[in-house]
Amino acid sequence: MAQATLERADVETGRRARPRFADRDGLLAWVFLLPSVVYIIALVAVPFFLAIAFSFSDVTTGNPSFNWAGLRNYQRIFGDPVFWQSLKNTLVYTGIAMALIVVLGKVLANILVANFRGKWIVRFLVLLPWTTPVALSAIAWLWLLDSIFSPIDWVLREFGFIQGNMYWLGKPNLAMASVIAVYTWRTLPLAAVIIMAGLVAIPKDIVEAAAVDGAGFWRRMFEVTIPFTLPVIAVAALFGAVITFTDMTVVYLLTGGGPTHSTQVLASWAFIKGIEGGDLAQGAAVALFLFPLLLAAVIAILTAVRRMEVS
Amino acid sequence: MTAAPTTALDERTIAHLRRRAARRHVAARIGLYAAAVTAALVCAGPFLWSGITAFKQDTDLYQRDNNPFIYNVNPTGEHVSYLFTDTAFATFAWNTLWVGLLVVAITLFLGLPAAYSLARLNRPWSGPLGIAIFFVYLVPPTLLFISLSRVVGVLGLQDSTWSLVLIYPTITIPVSVWLLIGFLKAIPKDIEEQAMVDGYSRLGAFVRTVVPLVFPGVVAVVVFAFTLAASEFIYALAFVSPTSEKVISTGVPTELVRGDVFFWQSLQASTVLVAVPIAFVFNLFLERFIAGFTMGAVKG
Questions:
Q1: CA distances from A127 to A108, A161, A187, A229, B286 (A)
Q2: List of domains in chain A
């Protein structure tokens, strides 16, 4: 009887000859996993080591032959004040943007998990910045921060705060603030969604018990909600920091790193050198400089995840 | 309290307390609605402004002192139609669509078995490898685009949209595997075991019972992966330069800006046209996406 069922099933799945293969978990686990692993090794790990090799060579788009150049690229980078400016900007950009994203993301998540009418439309509107391709939303902002026709300037003028224009993207500090604001605006919805996942996972009875015991909104927030979601927020924040750290799109499209490199970040600098300037070797060296810092972030995340698993 | 049942004082106190609670409730509701409206305006404001701009005539738009939020001159649809008649916008949109769909297909084809392997087949290396795959997400395009542009060139895919089909799964597979592990772990093991008792092989049980049950999760992953692929900018910019091969992400900012001339209305129209459908679909599956993230993160 059992034998008959087995055979029927095998005929149905067309695997009469290999029931043993299909039943061997160990082999199947490899067969299932291998394609993804090969794909990623071929197109992530190999290019990664290739990038390291490039950084020690003199490869350009015009002359793609590989010649050993030793540490010359790194020497040239370290002697370039733009590199140090970019490094500083990258750290400022990541630090401020992440602080804003975590705090505002928590606030936004709290709003979105509450029950109110029109929730669907609010969620839809809130998701827009993240689901829109970043290049397009950056274009919307480019127009919003236009040097002459910015509606923000118009409003400020109407209220009499300013006379002419702010030149949002034309002054170093203002440009940096604008770039950070736009990046924060774009990433906020994703942070909110991730934190929402953490909020939803809090056991309901604990929150209710706290409410019954007379804990008010703020007390519940700081003594129940935040401690419970902290691991999720921490992991999300670290990932967010890595993504922010390596982002160049907002900078590239809004300011192109200007005015005079005051908003240049390592990623955009690597792009401008490597692809636009054609100096692949130097571009790779600049990009690789991101890696030690990324590695530190990975170790921090692993530690956080481990601690989460323990608790 | 017990001696004098409902004295006048008690009644007044109770009524007072009740009113205060009601007032507080109303205040909390108002605060919530105010916060929700503010959040929606901050997030969607730029798109609203884009929507207004898209229909403006040049004479209206390029007047510094005109109120930018209203139509001082009659609105016009010519800039929106310009997008379709005189630019390659439709081609960009089509390229984004088919690249996105192929990337999603590759992601699922490779990612779903990988996730099943890591979630269910209990090998000793499942745990570390699962984490390793996730960390691939941390090796960003910025680190790889220079050497990958060489790889793409060697494969003969330079300046072809197919280069993106090949490369984007490296971004989408790690995240998708992570999310799918969460969804797979939420399916009770008994169901597959029952199927295997009934005579299916492990593979048969996977195809016949697990795949249909994980379908809602798969839909969430599809939407997420598509959004990632549609948003990608750096690879698209570095690998592909002919107009006919570009995707929305790079086509719109490079082709609708000619030197110093910005086709502002058409640019803004394209932003709204792309933003609304993607956000709409994403919102439909938001709950599932959150569920997947919770399962993956909490019971990892």
A1: 11, 32, 10, 21, 10
A2: 80-310 (1.10.3720.10)
Q: Which of A125, A152, A293 should one mutate to test binding to chain B, selecting the residue with the greatest count of B CBs within 10 A?
A: A125
Q: Please indicate whether, in this complex, the C-beta atoms of B275 and A35 are within 8 angstroms of each other.
A: no
At A7-24, the pLDDT tens digits run 444 444 544 444 556 567
Q: What is the pLDDT of residue B106?
A: 95
B27 has a chain A CB within 8 A of its CB: no
The answer to whether B174 contacts A302, with C-beta atoms less than 8 Å apart, is no
What is the per-residue pLDDT across A59-95, written as a single tens digit (0 to 9) for each?
777 777 777 877 888 888 888 888 899 989 988 988 8
- List the end-to-end C-alpha distance of chain B, in Å, as a whole number: 54
Distance CA(A291)–CA(A184), nearest Å, equals: 23
Residues of A in Cβ contact (< 8 Å) with B65: 154
Identity of the residue in B50, B275, B293 whose CB atom sits nearest the CB atom of A194: B293
Q: Where are the alpha helices (DSSP H) in A201-289?
A: 204-212, 217-220, 226-245, 249-254, 266-271, 280-288
| Contacts for A177 with CB less than 8 Å, ≥ 6 apart | none
Chain B residues touching A9 at Cβ < 8 A: 198-201, 204
d(CA A126, CA A108): 9
For the complex shown, is ipTM > 0.90? no
| Domain B87-298, classified CATH 1.10.3720.10, yes or no | yes
pLDDT computed for residue A221 by the predictor: 79
